[in-house]
Specification:
7-stranded mixed β-sheet; alpha/beta; 12 helices; 39% helix; 9 strands; binds S-adenosylmethionine; single chain
């Protein structure tokens, strides 16, 4: 197998595989999406606990492997394999996602799951340790930042277990961790692009104040462009002598966040600050 190209590190420890499946709290009626089933070490355990598995696998040889594993068994009817790239795939309905996928697609995987509708009940996913810790970080901690804020807006995220390199064949270069993501349902009524746009500004330099990050090169220009579009669309006249920098400063001061450290802004603070800008017609996307 071309292990480098597809990031094929097979999970060989049965206790870890069972542990991952157990953490998904599957119901016998569940439809489970598995991303990158490989040879099926997780798949057979998932099949034992649910109604149906839809497995998306990019490597046709692996797809054949996992299908061979259930051939002639009752589970065969419960397994559907889609051959293709998960990132580009049109996903069917699923209740829960379980995956041990290559770490190159960690970020697209998380955001694709969070934007899926109807909202899945939970996802249990294997990641590189560092990425996992960045996902579960809380405001003010060392790994807190744009990734954690964007994900935690939409979901509760927990670190479930550490998984050492020795549990895979061939062993990967890095340590791994399993994370459980429980999407908030209903999701908060905030546009992702808008929240992320604010986070790009706030978290550009973690140790600076909110005000300093708004003064960074290009930020005022971007906000002004968005503001002019908003004014045009809403029939709002721009006053003479209008200065976007002054407007930003006033909003920041009135919001009470101007002198806060970026590193300490939690999801709630970010939402309040975003709302303060939005009521003034200022948008980040
Ligand atoms: N889940 C299996 C296990 O735990 O033993 C295999 C894990 S291996 C790290 C990752 C699997 O994902 C491989 O089978 C690989 O071919 C597949 N894969 C890689 N990139 C993918 C993608 N973009 N979409 C779907 N499958 C992918």
């Amino acid at each position: 197998f071309d292990t480098a190209r597809f990031g094929q590190h097979i999970l060989t420890n049965p206790l870890v595989a069972q542990g991952i499946v157990d953490k998904a709290n599957l119901k016998p009626t569940d439809i489970v999406l598995e991303v990158g089933p490989g040879t099926g070490n997780l798949t057979v355990r998932i099949l034992a606990a649910c109604r149906k598995v839809v497995a998306v696998e990019m490597d046709p040889r692996m797809a054949a492997e996992v299908q061979k594993r259930v051939l002639g068994k009752p589970e065969q009817k419960k397994l559907e394999v889609m051959i293709g790239d998960f990132v580009k795939a049109d996903l069917p309905y699923f209740d829960v996602c379980i995956s041990n996928t290559p770490y190159q697609i960690s970020s697209p995987l998380v955001f694709k799951l969070l934007s899926h509708r109807p909202i899945p009940r939970c996802a249990v996913l294997m990641f590189q340790r560092e990425f996992a810790l960045r996902l579960v970080a809380s405001a003010g901690s060392k790994l807190w930042g744009r990734l954690a804020a964007n994900v935690q807006l939409y979901a509760r995220v927990e670190h479930i277990m550490k998984v050492g390199k020795g549990n895979f064949r061939p062993p990967p270069q890095v340590e791994s961790s399993v994370v459980r993501i429980m999407p908030r349902d209903p999701p908060p009524p905030v546009k992702f692009e808008e929240f992320d746009g604010l986070n790009r500004v706030i978290f550009s330099r973690m140790n600076k104040t909110v005000r300093a990050n708004f003064k960074a090169k290009g930020v005022a220009e971007l906000i002004e462009r968005n503001y002019k579009t908003w004014c045009a669309e809403n029939g709002h006249m721009i006053e003479d002598g209008f200065d976007i920098r002054e407007k930003i400063d006033t909003i920041l001061l009135d919001s009470g966040y101007a002198d806060n450290r970026a590193a300490k802004m939690d999801v709630d603070d970010l939402l309040k600050l975003l709302a303060a800008f939005n009521v003034e017609g200022i948008h980040f996307a």
